[in-house]
Design brief:
Number of strands: 8
Largest sheet: 5 strands, antiparallel
Radius of gyration: 22 Å
CATH architecture: Sandwich
Structural class: alpha+beta
Helix content: 10-25%
Order of helices and strands: HHEEEEEEHHEE
Strand content: over 45%
Shape: elongated
Number of helices: 4
């Protein structure tokens, strides 16, 4: 009995990774996969023209292959449009609220990004090429998901691309 207690104490003091439950959650979080499922730009014209906006609604599908339920405290991402001749940064979007990803499950996270006329001037032509002229391009989402396990926060990278002809 005494030998078993000594071994257990020694095992705990060594800081073996097997004992670290947060590392188990981090490993599960690294296996998450993110997919940009839908991007819907909508032009909202107003008069005067500088009051116009473009609103982007999109969904990120988050898949969890692990046996652990994971909790995300939020997302920080950058949406860009990649066409044959240029890359246009559309804007930054965040999700301050959290969401849960069930074990062996999937969840769809809706996001929205609204840009004013002044914000969108640089990317206007590529966006109109995709929206009105149906030219081939790819929406790209890059950022981080802010996860939490046992009160400890950590970030997981998000990278996803969706072709406009899908």
């Amino acid at each position: 009995m005494r030998c078993g207690l000594t071994l257990a104490c020694l095992f705990l003091m060594c800081g073996c990774g097997i004992v670290d439950p947060v590392e188990t959650y981090r490993a599960a979080a690294r296996r998450l996969h993110f997919s940009l499922e839908r991007v819907e730009p909508k032009v909202e014209l107003a008069f005067p023209l500088n009051q116009s906006r473009i609103r982007f609604r999109f969904d990120i599908e988050v898949g969890n292959d692990s046996d652990l339920r994971l909790h995300a405290r939020g997302l920080d991402c950058k949406l860009s449009l990649h066409s044959a001749d240029q890359i246009s940064t559309i804007g930054d979007v965040g999700l301050p609220g959290g969401f849960d990803v069930p074990a062996k499950g999937r969840v769809s996270v809706p996001l929205e990004l609204a840009l004013t006329y002044q914000d969108i001037q640089a990317a206007w032509r590529p966006i109109m090429d995709v929206v009105q002229r149906h030219k081939a391009a790819a929406w790209k989402l890059d950022g981080t998901a802010k996860l939490e396990a046992l009160g400890i926060g950590f970030d997981v990278p998000i990278h996803s691309t969706k072709n406009t002809n899908q």
